[in-house]
UniProtKB/TrEMBL annotation:
<dbReference type="InterPro" id="IPR005946">
    <property type="entry name" value="Rib-P_diPkinase"/>
</dbReference>
<dbReference type="InterPro" id="IPR029099">
    <property type="entry name" value="Pribosyltran_N"/>
</dbReference>
<feature type="domain" description="Ribose-phosphate pyrophosphokinase N-terminal">
    <location>
        <begin position="1"/>
        <end position="121"/>
    </location>
</feature>
<keyword id="KW-0547">Nucleotide-binding</keyword>
<keyword id="KW-0545">Nucleotide biosynthesis</keyword>
<protein>
    <recommendedName>
        <fullName>ribose-phosphate diphosphokinase</fullName>
        <ecNumber>2.7.6.1</ecNumber>
    </recommendedName>
</protein>
<dbReference type="Pfam" id="PF13793">
    <property type="entry name" value="Pribosyltran_N"/>
</dbReference>
<dbReference type="InterPro" id="IPR000836">
    <property type="entry name" value="PRTase_dom"/>
</dbReference>
<dbReference type="GO" id="GO:0004749">
    <property type="term" value="F:ribose phosphate diphosphokinase activity"/>
</dbReference>
<keyword id="KW-0808">Transferase</keyword>
<dbReference type="InterPro" id="IPR029057">
    <property type="entry name" value="PRTase-like"/>
</dbReference>
<dbReference type="Pfam" id="PF14572">
    <property type="entry name" value="Pribosyl_synth"/>
</dbReference>
<keyword id="KW-0067">ATP-binding</keyword>
<keyword id="KW-0418">Kinase</keyword>
């Protein structure tokens, strides 16, 4: 096995490597004055099972496009130099939200990104809590592996709720399935009945509307669940609605903490008690440092990623790892 982590994903890569009880393999990345770049492995890859980790969230000084291009070229380089199999380990997959046409002549960018990976000779892609699981699976013709974080978040939910009854809440209809799966995982772990709810959200030309609210949250600890938090507007809107209906505590849970422009409003709100994300992208740690008083907790995922890579390399079961029933 060879395992590389590209620039910007080194910390997560190192954590996954520790879980594998190996060191990250060395590689070179060079940026040129005209904006072009070169990257290459500094160890032989011929005949090897190669894993390349890079999380594709844009950040300060680097765009998602830059990261995507560098990852694609590095995967192709490994294939060019004789790798037997190349797996892209992409905890956060850029453009996964644009998986369908919502306006006339819209792009379906998720599918275009999949075609780019396949054109580079990628044999397999692994990602974490993608925006739309079905769209992800349908976009890729190469093998696609999807990890989720239910087993990571479940113990923390019980701890934060204390003696209060729990309700799992989706901030929009598109996340209902994700919230239901977490609800079922909690019920299996605790043996208790878990409440459930969601609210309506429609977005058109960046204007959000919809007032339908389903579920009983009064006197409960509510956990708003989403795949990502960007500006935080969707989560905050749901939190305020839950507070208006009598929620005793409100917590926000998301796998990917992007925390872009406007997230300061989320961190300054009294409507949310805790915000819990993973370290799938570096922007979560940046936000933690920038807003030290924010009620923000970051769960590590390096161990999960490392275990998944080990199972893939040994032809083991991913379903068993993340708790999917046969």
């Amino acid at each position: 096995m060879r395992f590389f982590a590209l620039k910007g994903s080194e910390q997560l890569g190192a954590a996954a490597a520790r879980a594998l009880s190996i060191d990250l393999d060395p590689h070179e990345e060079r940026d040129f004055e005209d904006g072009e770049h070169k990257a290459r492995p500094l160890v032989g890859v011929r005949g090897r099972d190669v894993y390349v980790l890079h999380s594709l969230a844009g950040g300060e000084g680097v765009s998602a496009n830059d990261k995507l291009c560098k990852l694609l070229f590095f995967l192709a380089t490994c294939k060019e130099n004789g790798a037997a199999r190349v797996t892209a380990v992409v905890p956060y997959l850029a453009y996964a939200r644009k998986d369908r046409q919502t306006k006339a002549r819209d792009p379906v960018t998720t599918r275009y990104v999949a075609q780019l990976f396949e054109a580079m000779g990628t044999d397999r892609i692994m990602t974490l809590d993608v925006h739309n699981f079905a769209a992800f699976q349908n976009a890729f013709r190469c093998e696609s592996i999807h990890l989720d974080t239910r087993k990571l978040f479940a113990p923390l939910i019980g701890k934060l709720a204390g003696d209060l009854p729990i309700a799992i809440f989706s901030p929009d209809s598109g996340g209902v399935k994700r919230a239901q799966l977490l609800k079922e995982a909690l019920e299996a772990e605790t043996g208790k009945e878990i409440g459930f709810g969601f609210m309506e959200k429609r977005r058109s030309r960046n204007v959000v509307s919809g007032e339908l609210f389903a579920g009983d949250v009064a006197d409960k600890a509510v956990f708003i669940v989403d795949d990502l938090i960007s500006t935080g507007g969707t989560v905050l809107r749901a939190a305020l609605a839950c507070r208006e209906r009598g929620a005793r505590a409100v917590h926000a849970i998301a796998t990917h903490g992007l925390f872009g422009k406007g997230a300061d409003v989320l961190f300054g709100s009294q409507a949310i008690d805790r915000i819990i994300v993973t370290d799938s992208v570096d922007s979560a740690a940046v936000a933690k440092a920038r807003y030290p008083q924010a009620p923000l907790d970051i769960l590590p995922i390096g161990c999960l990623v490392g275990k998944a890579i080990r199972r893939l390399h040994a032809q083991g079961s991913i379903s068993d790892l993340i708790g999917i029933d046969d």
